[in-house]
Each structure stands twice: as C-alpha cells, then as structure tokens.
Specification:
Layout lengths: L1 E7 L5 H14 L4 E7 L2 H11 L6 E11 L2 H13 L4 E6 L7 H6 L2 E4 L7 H20 L8
Parallel strand pairs: 1-2, 1-4, 3-4, 3-5
Length: about 150
C-alpha cells in the first residue's frame, strides 16, 4: 500500500513545512509515502486519474461534514486497507471553500476532525500525526500509550 497525502494550496509557514517533513519521515517507516502540494481541486482529480492502475486509488477526503474517527478507528481503517491490498490510499485536504459535490461523490470515505474549523495547514499536520499514530497502534509501539 502506498500512502499519499495531498493538499490544495501553497505552504507558507516554515514550521508547517518542518512538521510535515517530520511526520512524512516517521510514516515512511510503516508505509511508502508521498506528499503532493496541488494548486486546485481539478489538479487533485487529475492525480486520481493518473494514479489509476490495476485499481482505482482509494480517495479519502477531509471535510467538516465527514465521519469522525478516533485514533484506534484510524488504525483499523489503515489495517483494513493494508490487508485488502489497497494499492494507493490517497488522503486529501481541500480548498478553503470546501470540496465540490462531484469530488465528494468520488471519495470512498470522508473524514472529519470534528466541528471545529482548522486552518488547512494545521489540518494536514493533524492528519499526518494521526496516520503515524494509527500505524504505531498497529505495531504496538508505545507512542500511543502516552496520550
């Protein structure tokens, strides 16, 4: 399984760039990882088409209207896709004005971090940390026990 993280928009903050790089490095211990900074929702859809191989990539959107999962449920989600030979698991953080209905319809899963509104750059760091946490839960690593 290849884990792909995409976000719409440029990253301006050095702190966010540093945290993104750190969590991508940590994630790479558990799964092949790729990050994509994209200019638009249309560019994301082109990437989805481009990634289609023997199977379509599993598109997971972050959206305030999505399903909320706790860390253990995220771990189970990752484990399910790993054990079912998902080729590409693509998580995407959308534009400031949200996803269009047509893109939401293409998603296999829509997740939310709750009713709060997070800046997109911060949502990315939270997503990366939770994916890392999910893998550590699956491996029995003590990282999660200190929560």
């Amino acid at each position: 399984m290849k884990l792909r993280i995409a976000w719409i928009g440029k990253t301006k903050s050095p702190a966010i760039q540093s945290l993104t790089a750190e969590y991508l490095k940590r994630l790479s211990r558990y799964a092949a990882c790729d990050a994509m900074e994209l200019p638009s929702e249309a560019a994301l859809l082109k990437q989805v088409d481009k990634l289609a191989g023997r199977t379509q990539p599993v598109l997971v959107l972050l959206d305030s209207r999505g399903k909320q999962l706790n860390s253990e449920e995220i771990a189970n989600f990752l484990d399910y896709h790993k054990s079912h030979d998902t080729q590409d698991l693509l998580f995407a953080i959308g534009p400031a004005d949200g996803w269009t209905d047509s893109t939401r319809a293409l998603a296999k899963q829509i997740l939310s971090f709750g009713k709060i509104t997070l800046p997109h750059e911060l949502a990315r760091v939270v997503l990366l940390e939770q994916l890392y946490r999910g893998f550590t839960i699956l491996q029995g690593h003590p990282y999660h026990e200190g929560h």
